[in-house]
Amino acid sequence: MARDRGAQCKQCRREGVKLFLKGERCLTDKCGVERRSYPPGEHGRGRAKQSEYRLQLREKQKARRYYGVLEKQFRSYYDKASRQPGVTGENLLRLLERRLDNVVYRLGFAASRAQARQLVRHGHFHVNGRRVNIPSYQVKPDDIVSMAPGSSAEQVIRDATDLTASVAPWLQADHDGLTGKILKLPERGEIDTPVQESLIVELYSK
Q1: Residue 103 phi/psi, 5° resolution?
Q2: Which of 10, 34, 52, 118 could form a disulfide with 40 if both were Cys (CB 3.0 to 4.6 A apart)?
Q3: Is pLDDT above 50 for 96?
Q4: Does residue 1 register a pLDDT over 50?
């Protein structure tokens, strides 16, 4: 299973914004961005040149790290989004939001996307009653996501629901029954990803 093994707090510091890669820790004063609000590395406190390319690259890296996908995967999502009707940037975010690991996180069944990815990979969730262990699985409207019966991770999942303040408006969650439903495809206004997708489109359009 390919994944980014880099230090997660450094990734947030590099982008200058909380990406919530460590779940509950990101809400405390132990958060790397809170403790050191400058980029990592020897020259982190220096002044970096703000070029157009740099801004576009940072937005792409921010989105990629936010959803926990590698460069090749991210480019594949962009290519697919560009072939769909509508606004390419919004299509891209919609595809990323519909990943099963992201949906598990958005429903409040995991404290972070990394934890959601692991839970899905280990077969702790079903989609429409069938076991799905592919984190990148694309959910569809009316799909039902539920914890696998007898899952050994039930307590971990219930602990995660206690940290959840709200659920995305395009989803419906039952935290007592540990089930969720995809009501519809997400609109751009319902996606709180802290990126300017237009800059990503400009980067890949060159």
Answers
A1: -65, -40
A2: 10
A3: yes
A4: no
Torsion of CA 23, 1, 100, 114, to 10 degrees: 0
What contacts 165, CB < 8 A, 6 or more positions away? Answer: none
Residue 9 has a CB neighbour count (10 Å cut-off) of 22
Asked if residue 183 lies in contact with residue 170, where contact means CB atoms within 8 angstroms, the answer is yes
Amino acid at the residue 18:
K
- The pTM assigned to this predicted structure is 0.79
Measured CA to CA, the distance from residue 114 to residue 94 in angstroms comes to 19
DSSP conformational letter for 41: S
The secondary element (H helix, E strand) that includes residue 127 is strand 125-127
Please say whether the beta carbons of 185 and 96 come within 8 A.
Answer: no
Name, in order, each residue with C-beta under 8 angstroms of 123's C-beta and a sequence gap of 6 or more. Answer: 131, 133, 148
Q: Burial-class residue 12 by CB neighbours within 10 Å (0-12, 13-18, 19+).
A: buried
- What distance in Å separates the CA atoms of residue 159 and residue 193, rounded to the nearest whole number? 24
In the beta sheet, which residues pair with residue 180? 145, 173
